[in-house]
Design brief:
By secondary structure, the protein is of the alpha/beta class. 49% of the residues lie in helices and 13% in strands. It contains twelve helices and six strands.
Length: 254
C-alpha cells in the first residue's frame, strides 16, 4: 500500500523519509513488510498522503495479525521465490518438511506466541507447495542432526508420522535430507540453525534465534554462511544411510 501510494505521488523513498524525519532504510523496510509502522509514523503517512486513517488502521490490523512473527515475513517471501533452499536444523524438523501435527506441537509448546494457531499451522504447511510446483519446483537440500529424530515433539504417533513424511518427501527428485549422526560429537552445526535460498541467481540466508531471527543479504556474509552449511554437510551421512537412520527412528516411535 505504501509503495503504491508513494509511486502515485511520484515521491522517492528519500523524499518520503525526509517528510517523516525518518531514515530511507526504514521506508524500505515498511515497503517490503519487514517492519510495521508505529502509530505515530502511520499517522504521519496518512498526513503526507491525505489518506484519512488508512495507514493507521492498516498498521494496527497488521500488528494484531502478525503477533510476534513479522520478522520471518521477508524470509518467507524469498523462500516462495526460491529455486533452491539449503537448510540445517539441529533441533527440529525443517519447516518445509513439517507435518500438521508436528507443526502444531512445535508452535503450541515451544514458546512461540501466535495469535491464530490454526492459521499459523496452515500457513506453515502451505510453504511446502514450493516443492511440488509443476514448473520449476524448488530443490531442497536439508541437513538435520540425529537429535531431531530422537526428540519427542507431540505424541509418539506424531513423531512416527513426521519421520515417515520425511522419507516420503525424499522420494521426490528435488528433495534430499541427510542426517549428522550423534556419534560425530562436536561439529560446526552446534552453532545453530541456518538456511540459504537461491533467488534470481543470488543467495540470501536466514538465521533463527530466540529473538526471532534475521535475513542476511550481504554477499560476503551469505557466502560465509554457505561455507558453514557445506562444512556441516560433510559430517552428514550419505543419502541412503541417512534414510535408513530416519526409517529406523520412525519405527522406534511406532
Amino acid at each position: 500500500m505504501l509503495k503504491f501510494a508513494r509511486s502515485r505521488s511520484t515521491m522517492t523513498q528519500d523524499q518520503l523519509a525526509e517528510r517523516l524525519n525518518v531514515s530511507t532504510s526504514l521506508i524500505a523496510k515498511f515497503e517490503t513488510n519487514r517492519l510495521i509502522p508505529k502509530p505515530d509514523t502511520a499517522r504521519g503517512l496518512d498526513a503526507v498522503f491525505d489518506s484519512g486513517d488508512l495507514f493507521q488502521e492498516s498498521a494496527a490490523e497488521a500488528r494484531a495479525f502478525s503477533g510476534g512473527t513479522v520478522w520471518i515475513r521477508p524470509w518467507l517471501e524469498y523462500e516462495q521465490q526460491a529455486t533452491m533452499v539449503r537448510s540445517f536444523e539441529p533441533t527440529v524438523v525443517p519447516g518445509l518438511l513439517q507435518t500438521e501435527d508436528y507443526a502444531r506441537a512445535i508452535l503450541r509448546y515451544a514458546g512461540t506466541r501466535v495469535p491464530d494457531l490454526d492459521g499459523t499451522v496452515a500457513s506453515r504447511i502451505a510453504r511446502a507447495e514450493i516443492l511440488h510446483r509443476v514448473d520449476n519446483p524448488c530443490r531442497l537440500f536439508a541437513v538435520i542432526d540425529e537429535a531431531v529424530l530422537r526428540r519427542p515433539v507431540g505424541t509418539p504417533k506424531v513423531m512416527a508420522d513426521q519421520l515417515h513424511a520425511i522419507v516420503q518427501a525424499c522420494a521426490l527428485p528435488n528433495v534430499s535430507v541427510t542426517v549428522v549422526p550423534a556419534l560425530v560429537g562436536a561439529y560446526p552445526g552446534l552453532n545453530g540453525p541456518l538456511a540459504l535460498a537461491t533467488v534470481d541467481g543470488r543467495d540470501v540466508a536466514f538465521l533463527d534465534d530466540p529473538l526471532g531471527g534475521r535475513v542476511v543479504e550481504d554477499p560476503d556474509r551469505v557466502a560465509a554462511l554457505g561455507e558453514v552449511w557445506e562444512a556441516i554437510r560433510e559430517y552428514a551421512l550419505p543419502g541412503q544411510p541417512s534414510l535408513e537412520l530416519i526409517m529406523e527412528a520412525a519405527e522406534s516411535w511406532s
